[in-house]
Amino acid sequence: MATDNFQTLSDIPGAPSRAPFAVTPSDSVELSIIPKALYVGTGGTVILRGVGGAADVTFKNVANGQVLDVRAQFVRATGTTAADIVALA
Description:
Layout: E1 21-22, E2 37-42, E3 44-50, E4 57-62, E5 66-68, E6 72-75, E7 83-88
Antiparallel strand pairs: 1-7, 2-5, 2-7, 3-4, 3-6
């Protein structure tokens, strides 16, 4: 087992991701864990709703490899053209 020299430190929003996971966009299913940010592997448009948001928002022209610093509750399938999205939780 690998040694984790940082295991006793707090996991705060600005800290590196500890449990990244692949995102499957859905119009009705929320993300299983609210992430710190989203990594977009293949650029395009991302439609999402933030954890405290009352409505969906559109991120257009997201570049390949861009990180969206947003704590998303939903990443919608309809309208999202970006792919290879990873939640940084």
